[in-house]
Amino acid sequence: MMNNAKLFIVSAPSGCGKGTILNEVFKDRDVYYSISCTTRKPREFEVDGVNYFFITQEKFDEMAGNNEFLEYATFVGTSYGTPAKPVDDAIAQGKDALLEIETVGAALVKKARPDSVSIFILPPSVKELDRRLHKRATESDEVIVKRVSQAKAEIEKAYNYDYVIMNDALEEAVRDFELILSSVKNNDNKADQFKAENMKEKIEEVLKNA
Fold it and tell me: Residues near 154 by Cβ (< 8 Å), separated by ≥ 6?
């Protein structure tokens, strides 16, 4: 039997509802959620091997030197990386792998695994994203301003993804995401409307309403 397992890369600006969509889409599917390595200390609610693999900088550098990461980066003195082996093992076992990652890391993974499928989730507008972040009320206004500014830069990268959907209404976004998955797995063209080249106007519209 042919192995049809895929690596799906998903990116979206903060506050776009990515987690909610993924929880809905994958609640009844057997999928490996990629877990990143980090050199930072765990927060009190975080569990090693569930939220992250918490490792030393020395171990991280060793893994990087042995090409054990699909991608890695250092932000403000903390290193993060996506270990390749668990992803490759899952796919070898016929299980789809899912990688939730920001746009820079996504581009590196796509380069390392060109057969992966990348999906970008758009907010209806940057203004709506700003409203959602304020409504969530988990961060200061200063952090929200930074996140909204960062979101614009991320949305500009949406053109480089294989597929783009919009999270305006959750049920619709879930349905669109599921259509992409089944289209990729069945190797048909039923989700072609969501290919990045066919979503250019939508991307431009979101950026115009920034």
Answer: 11, 12, 13, 102, 103
Q: What are the tens digits of pLDDT across the range 34-74?
A: 999 999 999 888 999 999 999 999 999 999 999 999 999 98
Local confidence band at 133 (pLDDT 50, 70, 90 cut-offs) = confident
Q: Which residues of 47-71 are buried (b: 16+ CB within 10 A; e: fewer)?
A: eeeeebbbbeeeebeebeeeebbbb
What would the CATH number be for the domain defined by 7-34+96-208? 3.40.50.300
- Cβ neighbors of 2 (< 8 A, separation 6 or more) are none
pLDDT of residue 210: 65
The model carries a pTM of 0.89
Which residue, 77, 82, 75, is CA-closest to 97? 82
Q: Edge-to-edge strand order for the sheet containing 31-33?
A: 31-33, 96-100, 7-11, 117-122, 163-166
CA dist 44 and 62 (Å) reads: 27
Which residue ranges make up each domain of the chain? 7-34+96-208
